[in-house]
Design brief:
about 20% helix, three-stranded antiparallel β-sheet, elongated, 2 helices, eight-stranded antiparallel β-sheet, 13 strands
Amino acid sequence: MKSISKTTTKKFPKVLLITGIILVAVAAYTITAHAVKIWPFKSNSVITTVKSSSSSASSGTQSAPVGTKATGTTTVSSTGATTKNSSPDTSSSSPTSSNVSIISSGQNGDTLSIRTLIADIESSGTCTLTLSKGSTKITTIPSVGVQAGPSSSTCQGFDVSLSQYGIASGTWTITIDVTSGSTTSSATGTVAVQ
């Protein structure tokens, strides 16, 4: 019995030592990863430049990385593109150009994904997407509905097949018209297709 007890006693400090080394290694990686912005602290943002327009409001420029709201800061994407963000105006009860913005647009394989933000809570409405490049204008993309959230709304999202609509490489102009009741507003921006 004493030999079993001695073996267990000798293994306990080794287990503590190995556990301590692992914890120190994880802590060192976490600190280093945060300092140099590598996984899990790396930002995978797609930058979209947006120009809003409406017949009843003045134009402004808005942009934001994927998954974030515009915040009034300058953002540099991983490709080196620099854009300035500005916050949307939330004072109106129906969508206006300053309340509608394109928050992300990007290509993933054969799909072009475009997401919007409507600063007001809208329970109904329609979002229409138009893509244009030079003399080419694509207006046949199906419209989507407006989806209300707890503090804002969004178009239900556009995931457009590049091959289905003949979208060639280059810079395309995005125009999203949001109609709610008798009010129509739009947001425009550009996206690079490869």
